[in-house]
Design brief:
Blueprint lengths: L1 H6 L6 H53 L2 H6 L1 H4 L3 E4 L8 E2 L6 H11 L3 E6 L4 E8 L2 E8 L9 H40 L12 H47 L4 H29 L3 E3 L1 H11 L5 E5 L5 E3 L1 H18 L3 E7 L3 E8 L9 H4 L7 H4 L10 H11 L3 E6 L6 E8 L1
Parallel strand pairs: 2-3, 7-9
Antiparallel strand pairs: 1-5, 3-4, 4-5, 6-8, 9-10, 10-12, 11-12
Helix pairs in contact: 2-5, 2-6, 6-7, 7-8, 9-10, 10-13
Amino acid sequence: MIGRFLKQFAPRTLYGRAAAILLLPMLTLQLAVAAVFVQRHFEDVTAQMTNNLLLEVELVLRELERQSVSEVQEGFAEELKIELRSWDGVPSGNRMVFYDISGRTIMPLMRSRLDGLREIDLSDLDFVALGLMTAKGPIKLTVSRDRVSASNPHQVLVLMVFTGIFMTLIAYMFLRNQLRPIKRLSVASAAFGRGQRVALSPAGALEVRAAGQAFLDMRDRIERQIEQRTMMLSGVSHDLRTPITRLQLALELMEGPEVEDLKKDVSAMQMMVDSFLNYARDLAADPVEDVDLLALGAQLAERMTPPARFELAGVPRLCALRPVPIGRAIENLLVNAGRYGSESILTLHFEESGVRICVHDDGPGIPEAQRDAAAKPFVRLEVARGQNQGGGVGLGLAIAADVARLHGGQLVLSDSVKLGGLSADIRLPL
C-alpha cells in the first residue's frame, strides 16, 4: 500500500529514475554531513568561545566593584578589547536575526552565566551587545562577534553546495552518455514496430551493446523471414494463375448445372490470388513517406459505389506511412462496408498521439465472439455477415489488420454507433 502510494511520485523516465538513484544518496550524505557540522561547529565551538568570553566579562564585572567605570574602561576593559559604556537601564529585549544559527547557542549560555544580564543584542552580526546591571549601575558591554562564533562558518556550507553541484553536473554528463544508447535502441525498436528501419550502432556499456546487437540480429532475422514468406507465397500465388486460367477456359466450354458453382469457386480463387499478389507487391515496393490522409480518404470514399460519406475530426496533418498499403487497407474496409451494407461512412480522427481511420456500415455486423477470427486470413463469417451480398475471399480484414500492425497500430472491430452495423477502426500511432 505504501509502495503503491510512493510509486506515483517516482520519475517515469529512465533519465529521471537514474538521476534520482544518483542524486538521492548524494543529497542524503550532504544533509547528514551538514547536520553533523552544525551540531559540532555551530554548537560546540560556539559554546566554547562564548564561555571564554564570559570569563573575561566576569573579570570586568569584578573590576567594576573596585574601580570606577572610566578607570575600568580605559584600563582592564581596553586590554581585553571590550567596549564599556554607560546605559540607561531600559531593556529593549533580546534581539537576533532569524537565520542566526550560532545565536541560538550564545543566548542561553549568557543568560545562565550572567546574573545581572538584562539585554542581549545580536541583531548586528558583527558585534554582541550586553546590557548588565552592575555595582556601578547599568552598563553596556560590546564585543566583536568573532569572539563568540567562527568568523566564516558559511564557507564550509558553500563549499559543500558548490562541490555537490559540480559533482552532479559531472554525474549528469556521464549518465547522459550511458543512457543515450538505450534511448537510441528504444527509438529503433519503436520505428521497427511501425515498419521503419532506423540505423543503429551498438554503443555504451557492455550490457547495452549486447542488447543493441541482439536487437539488430533479431531485426535481421524477422526481416529475412518476412521476405522469405512473402516471396514464397507470392510465388505460389503467381504459379496458381496459369492453372486457374486453364480451369476458367475449360469451364467456359462446359455445360451443366454444376458448372456455375465451379465457375464461382474458380473466380473466388482468382480473386484470392490477385488480392495476395497485389498486397505482396505493395509491401515490397512501397517506402515510408508523408501521406495526406485527407486527400487519400476523400478519393477512396468517392470511388466507392455508392460513394461513402466522408467525415473529418481534428486538425489534419501529414503522416509518415506507406501510402499504397494504407490505401489498400482503407479500400478493403470500404469494399467490405459496401458489400455487406447499403450505407458507409469513412471518418478520419486526427489526435495528438495518433490517427484513427474508422469505417462504419449499416450491415449485420460481426458478433463480438467472432471478431478476432474475422481478422484472420481466409476466414469468412457467412452466418454473421450474410451470403447474399456477394462473398469475398476472407482477406480484406486480414490485410487491413496486417497493414495496421506494419505501421505499429492495430485494427479494432466494434459495433457502429453511427449506422448500427460494423465499425472497423485502424488506429495508428504517430
